[in-house]
Amino acid sequence: MAQTFFIDSDEEIISVIGQLRKSSDPENYFVFPKRSLVLQSAVNLRLFQREAEKQGKKIIIVSQDETGRQLAERVGIPTKDYAAEIGSLRQEAQPMTDRIRPEGRQSAVASTPSHRDAVPERHVDPLMPAANRIGSDSFAPASEASTALPLRRATETIMPESRPEAATAKRLKIRDTSPRYQTALNSKSDIRPPREEATMTRRHVVEPVESRVLTTEHHQPYRPALDTAVHSTQDFSERNQKLQKFFNREATAEHRPPVAQRNAPSMRPEMVPSRSSVSSGRAPVSSWKTASSIVLSLLFLAGVGAAVYFLVPKATVIVTPHDITRDITAKYEGRTIAPIGDKSENIVPVRKIEKSYATKLSGEATGKSSAGNQKARGTIIISNEYSSDSQPLISTTRFETSEGKVFRLAESVTVPGMTIQNGKREAGVVEAVVVADAAGDTYNIDPTAFTVPGFKGSAKYDKFRAQSTKAFTGGGAGGDGMMSITKEDIDKSVQKLKELSKEEFLAAVKQDLLPEERIIDDSVEIREDGTPTLPLIGSIGESFDIEQRFDGKVFVVSEQALKDKLAEKNQPELKDVAFAVIGATLSFENVVPHYDENTVEFSVQSVLSLESVVMKDALREELLGQDEQGIKTILEQHPEIKKIEVNFTPEFLFRSIPNSTSRVSVILEKDL
């Protein structure tokens, strides 16, 4: 056996699946109109196919919608064209059986022989005509329509029951849309539906005018009566009109057929209560209503947040402590190593910093040479790679370039012997000044290498070498425009070199200072280390270089240690009040360093700023929940506080400090 279900164009997949679950036949036909929602979605069709496989049932889709049938076939659901399927079903249709009525309740028309003879008997096809006649004037013959008796609505109460076994003909069904209690797609109902045998259904039955209202008092199948051929013609005409409207109507609420017409009795022997009388549609919620609800919710939340922020009390306590400024002069002794346990008020710890470094300076020549011819001169570096013994060289010792130009030592020098450094032998070197053997600007040569002609022919010739690092200058053919180096130029440059060395030393010391440390300026001591490298007086040239090594020493002291010492000796006379230094200016006077003893004596001129110490956290705990009178009482108990000011938020609602520490803050006036 097979069942046929007619599906609305706007019916959802969950309703179609509910009808499939309700079917007791293994084969089920589902008739869909054009543009049906289910046929337009491959997802819906897959869900439909999956549910059929789960139930072990075969489903066939019948529709005039070519696109929907192709989509169903791609999913795996067999389909048939509407016209072909109706033709096959028409051949299998059986004649309609007579309507069975209770004994003694037969219609007057059915019991009148004259009336039964007046209407000629003929076989009427219970199924709808071919598809090509839908919507035409020939859909329902005029002769049949003219012979139909006038109809009226009759209310009959019937009980749902199972299908009679006698009915074996394959017939079309009017869709059964009774509600199913489903919790999810592709799942059986988790909620037990109401018992069908306890349900009474009110429905409308179309009967001839002559029939009477019948109330069935026992569970007997309800079957349509076939009293006359007029009734059959009338029923088939009505069914054709339904099918025509089912396939031609628009999927809108205003064009839906009346509930009574959709619930007309089918030609099947079994009558199943329909859910079409119960409205399944829901009025859509307007988009503007949804937007309005969201806006109102946001406004409500914003209002609550603003109320919490502005109405929940807060308090800011501004505390003004006592402050004192004093001018102080004190004398101290700084020691690099203070005795353990020494608590003398005049001893402070200091640190000594020592550095050895070299300073180089370039000077300008201001003298004028009166000689007609000038000799070039320059500096060379002589190296000894011969032995570890030093080699003395007297003045006028010759040094010769590869071009044959000869220069002589201006002063005697001693070349150190070779030494061993990190397992390697290194040559001894010395720097010396040489003067050209002859006048002229041809001796103003660029940096080059020299040999000692006096060692020629011995092993020392290749082991003693010299190299210049700068160009030689001063050589000239004559004239009064030549610049020369005077003694005043050298002395002036040496003085500048000493000043520069002190600046470089202090800059290097500042890089080594610890936090809060300060240099005692007048304790700086700079000493020369060795002899400086100076040019010869009278040398020709516009500039010259001098270089000197120095040893520097200085004492440094911690500013915080000095401030603490000054505060201890100069506490204000306030009982039970502690003061802290918040600012101080320090200047050192009368500095006398003793580097051999690692001590330094000095005096300090200071402008000291002191402030009373206020314990903010403890004060906040005491102020919680206090009103104006309570605040005054607490102020009298804290002599370190000069004034208290409380700002409330919101100011117009509250006059006492909140009880929560998170809503009370204590701030010093200087921190504002």
Chain-wise SSE layout:
Elements: E1 2-6, H1 13-22, E2 27-32, H2 42-55, E3 58-63, H3 66-75, E4 79-81, H4 82-92, H5 108-111, H6 113-118, H7 142-147, E5 151-158, E6 201-208, H8 229-248, H9 259-262, H10 287-311, E7 314-321, E8 323-335, E9 347-364, E10 367-368, E11 375-384, E12 391-393, E13 398-400, E14 406-409, E15 413-415, E16 419-421, E17 424-426, E18 428-439, E19 449-451, H11 460-463, E20 464-468, E21 483-484, H12 487-510, E22 517-519, E23 525-533, E24 543-558, H13 559-569, E25 579-594, E26 599-612, H14 616-623, H15 628-636, E27 641-649, E28 664-668
Parallel strand pairs: 1-2, 2-3, 3-4, 7-28, 8-9
Antiparallel strand pairs: 5-6, 7-27, 8-26, 9-24, 10-21, 11-18, 11-20, 12-15, 13-14, 14-18, 16-17, 19-20, 22-24, 23-24, 25-26
Helix pairs in contact: 1-2
Describe the model.
- The structure is a single chain.
- This protein is of the alpha+beta class.
- Among the domains are: 2-262, no CATH class; 371-479, no CATH class.
- 25% of the residues lie in helices and 30% in strands.
- It contains 15 helices and 28 strands.
- The strands form eight sheets. Strands 8, 9, 22, 23, 24, 25 and 26 form a seven-stranded mixed sheet that branches.
- Mean pLDDT is 74; it is low at 92-170, 172-178, 181-236 and 250-283.
